[in-house]
Amino acid sequence: MTARPDFEKFIVIVTYGRSGSTLLQTALQTIPGAMIRGENNNLLYPLFRAWKRAHNTRYNQGQAPIPAHGPWYGADEIVPRRFGEELAGLFVREILKPTPQTRVLGFKEIRFHDAEPGEMPEFLDFIREFFPPCRLVFNTRRAADVARSSWWKDVETEKVMEMVEDLDRQYADYVAAHSDTSFLVRYDDYVKDRASLRALFDFLGEAYDEAAIEAAFARRLPH
């Protein structure tokens, strides 16, 4: 098995478009040794779906040895755990590309809701399982402000607001069920009061550098 590059922590920002996630990403980059990458077009999702198919094949069709003339020949030899670890290692090496100095690795993504209905929690479980020690940071913003963004200009305002409110509920439910590995922040809070991010840094076990945070917030974003 190909070894995964080593790191102490893995952080994923889970959110939707125009939630202020780039600002949060920049704030987390103030952690010493942190490399928090940007979006990757939800590339992990098809990897999760591949792992899920392998898992289902092994435990639905491969519960017993299958002869060479069987239609599912080889299904019993699939090792879903190893397959998931290989996929995770490949994603880290070829997509996130940490340096030898990277201590805290991660990324942000705004497309988790592209998952099939009801599948997002399972997708998030996959990430927590195969990128240990993983911390999921859910980022939310007031639905009306999200909907006003030109990024959503091709979608009806009401539909954007409904989507955001539904995702916020899903995020809150997931954090409530996995409070040891998940944390929820609100753009509307930290954009007004930087110090509100202290609780997140405490949760991550990292020092809150006030000067570095202020510098990150003062930097003009490219979008």
Question: Summed up, what is this model?
Answer:
The chain has 223 residues and is α/β, with parallel strands linked by helices.
CATH topology: the name is Rossmann fold
Dominant shape: globular
Count of separate DSSP helical elements: 9
Q: What does the average pLDDT come to?
A: 94
Termini distance? 40 Å
Tell me how many strands there are: 5
Read across the widest sheet, the strand sequence of neighbours is 2-3-1-4-5
Helical residues, percent: 40-55%
Domain module count: 1
Supply Rg.
Answer: 19 Å
Question: Segments where pLDDT lies below 50 for 5+ residues?
Answer: none
H/E element string?
EHEHHEHEHHEHHH
At the fourth level of CATH, the homologous superfamily is P-loop containing nucleotide triphosphate hydrolases
What does this 3D model show about the protein?
The protein is an alpha/beta fold and 223 residues long. The chain has one domain (9-192, 208-218): P-loop containing nucleotide triphosphate hydrolases (Rossmann fold), CATH 3.40.50.300. The protein is 45% helix and 13% strand. It is built from nine helices and five strands, in the order E-H-E-H-H-E-H-E-H-H-E-H-H-H. The chain has a five-stranded parallel beta sheet with strand order 2-3-1-4-5, sandwiched between helices. Helix 2 (44-61) runs antiparallel to helix 3 (80-96). The chain is globular. The model has no long low-confidence stretch (mean pLDDT 94). It comes from Rhodopseudomonas julia. InterPro entries: P-loop_NTPase. Pfam families: Sulfotransfer_3. This is Sulfotransferase.
